[in-house]
Amino acid sequence: MCWSAFGRPGGAPCRRTEPIIDELAAEHGDKIKFVKFDADANIETVTKYGVVSIPTFNLYAGGEVIKSLIGADQEAVPRRARRLGMRVSG
User: Fold this and answer.
1) What is the pTM of this model?
2) Which of 23, 10, 30, 33 is nearest to 74 (CA)?
3) Over the stretch 60-73, which tens digit does the pLDDT of each residue have?
4) Type and span of the H or E element at 76
């Protein structure tokens, strides 16, 4: 599995969710690959995965997006992670 975060470094919404993603990566990086994309610098990847809003978080299995979470809802990211069986303090 892979979890990607599409954002804009320095943007307020991304600054709010980045610590949560970092915590998930530190705790679960041995089982799930975590990748951050600067949306402005990776237009081709953003287009490929149909990202229309920043931040967007995608969970992939077998190279396919199986879940997406759009927006910087600080509660939604940990809630989604918990549903996937990940521990997170946020």
Assistant:
1) 0.82
2) 23
3) 989 889 888 888 77
4) helix 76-83
